[in-house]
């Protein structure tokens, strides 16, 4: 049975963006999930957060659905 963890928010202050901070946080989360035996990370990001929808695929995440609720 798949075991997963979810993320509903990852925000880097605009002054510090584009410096690899978010990518480092995601990599740390992946490392932690692996150590915990979790084989899936689910990310939820508001559809209006355009930068997030560019960022996550750039670090290996795949878009699976869009919800407007």
Relative helix content:
25-40%
Give the percentage of residues in beta strands. Answer: 5-15%
Structural class: alpha+beta
- The biggest beta sheet, please? 2 strands, parallel
User: Uncertain spans, ≥5 residues at pLDDT below 50?
Assistant: none
Could you walk me through the main structural features you see in this protein, from its secondary elements to its overall organization?
The chain is an alpha+beta fold. The protein contains two helices and two strands, in the order E-H-E-H. The radius of gyration is 13 Å and the shape is globular. It starts with a strand and ends in an 11-residue tail after the last helix.
Any descriptors?
69 residues, two-stranded parallel ribbon, alpha+beta, globular
In short:
The protein is of the alpha+beta class and 69 residues long. Helices cover 35% and strands 12% of the residues.
